[in-house]
User: What shape does this take?
Amino acid sequence: MGKKSRRKAKRRAGGKFVQKAPIEPAPAKATLESKAAAPSVGPAVSSTQATRYQYILPELRLIGIISGSLFLILIILTFFLS
Assistant: This one.
């Protein structure tokens, strides 16, 4: 028997697969003016990616607070125990 796939299929509530819309490339212009005037564009963040990772920033903040407080406790203990 083969291994189970680790990929999770995105499904709707009805059990049907959700198909992604094809990405259409933007038309490229061959003029020098448009290339010189075009600002640099960073990678676009989709709304699904933003909602998927919305818990990361609060978790990192909590980890930082906990680790900072433990580090501070260790420093204070070195003064009392030495």
Observations:
- The helical segments are 32-37, 47-52, 56-81.
- The radius of gyration is 25 Å.
- The chain has a mean pLDDT of 75.
